[in-house]
Amino acid sequence: MSLGISEAQLIALFLESLFWGIHFVTFISCLNTLFRDVDHGYSMHARRNFIIGASSVLLLVATFDVALLVHNILDAFIYFDGPGGATERFDNMESWNTAIRAITLLLVTMVGDGILVWRCWELHQRAWLPVIFPAVLWGTCIALGIAGLVVQATADENVNATSPVLAGIITSYWACTFVLNLATTGIIVLRLWSAERRAREVGLSDSSRARQPVTVHGAKGQSRIMDAIYTMIESGLLFTVGVFLCLVTHVALPNALFPVSDVLIQIAGIAFNLIIIRSSTRASNSTLPHNRSISLRNIGSTDEGRLSSTNDYGRPYPLRMEPTKGVNVFVETSTTSQSDEWKR
């Protein structure tokens, strides 16, 4: 079975346009979520601005890629009248055109992977040791992407994603990107699961068990940390599966890489936005009155722990609890950042 490059480009246009619509809807919903939540403090405001900026960049780059694909389709099927038809045109696109599309794909995947590594870094209280492996993989992916662009720019003939001269570089790039997403998502989930396990240990005492629904559990006893785990797995799996399909199609059916990689550009933004949206939705279903976020700090460091939250007027109202073991947890549901720090 073979897929011609003309057919692949038409399929890419249909699929990327479809996923761009989903991307745009999630972007608007993400903005609505961020501006609806009232964050207190400079750090929360700066983090919200960072999230808005990253989401906007992903949408702008994805929109530009769709526009460039439409240009190529019109050029090949409408305006080109040379021998060989659309297939010949796609095989011999100008070097600047193929280079820009490659840069677009590289930029989106690197921004998406960089945000994932940043989340992991923030989750571990900005400690570098847990993110050394993801950071090295991220740097390797960037180096491979730049190497591919250099080869493409210096080649004597037209080079695209299916050219043999780029086969090794592209295969290595997608393999490293797949391992990076799988490993980093796993590290984040393990960190959150550790927080969930420790939180359950804190709830072993009678007094803390009585207050458990107010601290880290919702109306039905559903842990907010488990909600964060589910959100990270769902969104991480969405992008990781897309990367895996890019790797498989590049090896097994090279021309199919065009539609799959174009869809991946949209999926990167969709996955990012869904984390914000779903975290906010799950936070709004909690039992804590009028809460936007909760924080548990230095629980167990003294005889009494203190759970603090904010009411509609932005004033804290503390609740007392007596945990059985020393633990320091910080959970932010309003900006999708969930972190914990354990002190024994």
From TrEMBL:
Coiled coil: none annotated. The keyword Calcium does not apply. It comes from the Eukaryota. Keywords: Membrane, Transmembrane, Transmembrane helix. Signal peptide: none annotated. The keyword Transferase does not apply. The chain crosses the membrane at residues 12-35, 56-80, 100-121, 128-153, 165-190, 228-250, 256-277. Residues 285-315 are annotated as: Disordered. Residues 285-312 have a biased composition (Polar residues). This is Uncharacterized protein. It comes from Pterulicium gracile.
